[in-house]
Amino acid sequence: MSDLFDAVDALVASRAPLPPAEERKRLRTAHGLTLDQVAAALKVRRATVSGWESAKKPTEPRGPEREAYARLLKQLAELYPAPSAKEEQAGPVPAPAVATGDPAPADARTSFPGPAPEGEAPTPAGNTRAAPGRPPLGAPATAPRPTRTPGPPSKSRRPGAERAAPKGGTDPRFEHGPLAVVDVVDGQVLAYCPGGLVLDVPAKSIPALVDWTLREARLGQPKLSGPGKDADPLLVLTEAALERYGLPTTLSDEERLVGRIPEGHKVIGQLARADWKLTKRGFGPWARIYRPATGSARACVQLCVPSWNALDVRHWGNAGQLPPAELARVLGVYASRVMTPRGSTAVTGLELMTALHPPTRASEPDADGNRHSEHNPGSLGREPVDCAPCEAPDGHPLLADLPRFHVRGPGEKLFEEAYDWARPLTDDECMRRNLVGIDVNMAFAAGANGLIVGLSAPTHVKAPVFDPKLPGSWLVDLSHIDLSRVKTGKDKWADLDASLLPSPFTPKGEHPEGPAWYATPTVAYAVELGYAVRPLEAYVRYENGRYLDNWYQRLRDAYLGTMADLGVDADLTPEDFLTAMADHRTRDPELTIVVSAVKATVKGGLGKLRERPRGDGWRPGEPWRALSRPTWRPDIRAAVISRTRVNLHRKIVKHAAFTGEYPVAVLSDCVVYAADGESPLDVLPYRDGKPLPGGFKLGVNPGLVKHEGTQSVLWGEEVRDRFNAPELNLARYIKDGTVTDVDNGE
Prior knowledge:
Helices cover 30% and strands 14% of the residues. By secondary structure, it is α+β, with helices and mostly antiparallel strands. Helix 13 (345-356) packs across helix 20 (589-608), helix 16 (520-528) packs parallel to helix 21 and helix 17 packs antiparallel against helix 20 (589-608).
């Protein structure tokens, strides 16, 4: 009989009642549990728990997992009951009076429902304001009512509001987050912070706003590295805030061209009278307002003006048009996972390198106990270094003696760029139905991972012996390398059709015809393919290291963490990964903006390593502003691009050797194959769920691939016929089939 009872109990447990998906998420977040913690306790995958909480299409647990999950939710519901309708309508309780008998002073802050940014505890609420927009990242549908904790007053006050306790585990100097979006609502200036906090702003002018930010707002971000500096607070000004403080809501054509408002503008005069200074770039979309540092203390605030095109739509999408609360959420997630924006995504990417490897550090105490500034090992130092002549872009001062219209060839110029290669379809490929594009995730970030780069000036060497561990530029003839027979492993050779493969040594995939300059990863790959190399000369850097490792890791974690919030986890099966990627952009459009910005930070930061002249009356042969930066390092950029291109070619070769299939087109990090089916699984050689070792693998991690797009073979042939271009690069248009020359930021 007991067996029958056990069977009945199991049957009832298999249908244990569960609350709605929104309530499940509310209960988990109220107790401070992560998806990973719940998944580990129930012995399921993280994506499974995420599916149970999905507001759009929640899945239901089964079997013993359902019983355990129901038990967990029941206990959490007892600890965190949902607020009643009366409680939600009643609003906050008035602040208590202080012991002196005077009305209770209050901090000028209010909050709207929602938890704090990642890694921070919720802030207790003061007066509740109705703030437009989405809740912060991971906010429950019904936020638990926080406990009030009175604290000391601040200089800017608001009746009925009160000081909240500092967030657990955060720097109390920056308890309100790294930034705030300043807006005007019903005549009141408000600062929307990440995590749901809204501060009242008493400032009547831009100088007063800067002063309030530094004295009372508690905005900023702790340093990312031991010897580094704390991030300056960032204020984002809406159009209403611009009007309130006497600034134009848009720039004129002339102002947009020079990138700033005129020096004679009244606001700049106000700043000067208050002893505030602007950097050389003036008061533009990204303005930095500061006073000279005294000792270790910094007095600096950065302003971001979206309506002046501070947030490039190619990288930030419609972020500039978001309501203040939602914009604070987007920028707050980016700041917490990458860093507080310092300008464009490109500028931020470069600044992140320096923040993670500051140029100096404090020395050990001397005989008098004093510390001094000294070089920080592993950094690029404080002073710029000259590149090698072959690494210099056209117009560089090192090339001032060249004839005016001289065009440098491969033997004079290092030309490491991303792939842009295509070929006509074979007769067999024309009989296939589709062209399937696959795209490498964060390809250039993956290329930077573990890469040894130079940290100092180059040394010129004649007839050197090639060393794959020595970063630099090498003049070597690789024209003898035959792609029809290459090594694909230790003592393992493969016979290939070289006419269907791009060369790994040139961006256009053309076979090299003589000596040319290459970065170390390209020459190392030639050796890996099974061929000897004899460099004629080289510019090498004996002081070197993995300068980009921390940079890669932070951007990788930012990307993977945000994709996981969108339901795309690193441990999904290939089929589940394709399904999750198909609609991940619709799950949370704001977080897709963060993903786009993270990817743009990678590419833009690497591009800044070889920033070109930007007007200012520059003439060829003259130095330009970027050359004064220690981070102007074209050799590092070339090494990353070289390694990224080589990584992609290695996978193409492995794929061809195993399947006999060759790419039709390659553009940067996208590869197109002809196939009968429409899915990447019709292209990639999975066996029993396992990918080809060393080949393409579906997944969200950097270096793995996703589905870029599928178009018909007839579409490809029609496009090439229409433009009379038999080798038109179809990878450029494979995503949606639209043929355009519009720059999409990629």
